[in-house]
């Protein structure tokens, strides 16, 4: 079977410890040919956050790739219409959550560790995104720059209730308190959504170490001006975050859609088309 994603996407990933933290507890994964990008921001005691985020990206990327070998990501359930990618993301995030939770339970030095997570699967001109916590995914389409994820955080809940303004949120002492994370509890539910994808779209997965340091307008402007050079865009995003203080680890995965990537019709679809 040919891979409809070959040459369809460009992905660049970059991570940096920032200027304040002694170690980097972020972890990233990107594979353009498989249409898969993952970013995790770990939390916990000494080195535990690094362990949690690394486990998340390694286990989730390998689990999803095994799942998509058995069943194509774009395959739709006949009863619900749900893409297999949606189901696989939920199932594999649950597997990762259990693995991190068990590791924290079994080894005291990893006690309380966990990680945020944002994962993107590109298939059949669509994007399926799963997230837990406050790592984000943005989309630049033409002049429109929007967040496709909604933070699982105490601060976001305050914003949703209208208790604070967006300006007040930037300086809140509660801005890093997540209400949902991978590996902290025995079970966790990933929020999963599907979006259409267009040629020319630019997607940005990032940790809070980036967006806490930059205004959204700054990020949009940089992606617009550097969209033709993703390596430069990723480097400049991290440099700007560090120029503004670099208070946390900074990680980005930048994805550009170079062409459409509709799924090839299956054998039975081709056979049926001959009789139409």
Automatic annotation (TrEMBL):
Cross-referenced Gene3D superfamilies: PPM-type phosphatase domain
SUPFAM superfamilies, per the entry: PP2C-like (SSF81606)
Coiled-coil residue spans: none
GO molecular function, one term: protein serine/threonine phosphatase activity
Pfam families for this protein: PP2C_2
Domain PPM-type phosphatase stretches: 10-257
InterPro entries: PP2C, PPM-type-like_dom_sf, PPM-type_phosphatase-like_dom
Protein's UniProt keywords contain Hydrolase: yes
Keywords carried by this UniProt record: Hydrolase
E.C. code: 3.1.3.16
This protein's name: Serine/threonine phosphatase stp
């Amino acid at each position: 079977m040919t891979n409809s994603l070959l040459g369809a996407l460009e992905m660049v990933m970059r991570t940096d410890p920032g200027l304040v933290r002694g170690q980097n507890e972020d972890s990233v994964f990107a594979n353009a040919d498989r249409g898969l990008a993952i970013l995790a921001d770990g939390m916990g005691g000494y080195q535990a956050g690094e362990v949690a985020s690394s486990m998340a990206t390694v286990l989730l990327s390998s689990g999803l790739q095994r799942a998509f070998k058995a069943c194509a990501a774009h395959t739709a359930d006949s009863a619900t219409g749900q893409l297999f990618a949606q189901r696989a993301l939920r199932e594999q995030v649950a597997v990762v959550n259990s693995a991190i939770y068990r590791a924290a339970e079994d080894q005291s030095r990893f006690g309380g560790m966990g990680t945020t997570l944002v994962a993107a699967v590109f298939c059949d001109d669509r994007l399926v995104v799963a997230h837990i916590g406050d790592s984000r995914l943005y989309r630049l389409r033409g002049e429109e720059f929007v967040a496709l994820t909604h933070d699982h955080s105490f601060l976001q809940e305050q914003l949703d209730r209208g208790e604070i303004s967006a300006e007040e949120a930037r300086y809140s002492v509660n801005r890093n308190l997540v209400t949902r994370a991978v590996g902290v509890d025995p079970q966790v539910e990933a929020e999963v959504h599907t979006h259409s994808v267009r040629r020319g779209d630019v997607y940005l997965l990032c940790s809070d170490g980036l967006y806490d340091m930059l205004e959204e307008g700054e990020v949009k402007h940089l992606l617009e001006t550097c969209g033709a050079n993703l390596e430069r865009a990723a480097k400049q995003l991290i440099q700007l975050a560090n120029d503004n203080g670099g208070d946390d680890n900074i990680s980005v995965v930048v994805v550009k859609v170079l062409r459409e990537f509709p799924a090839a019709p299956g054998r039975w679809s081709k056979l049926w088309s001959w009789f139409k």
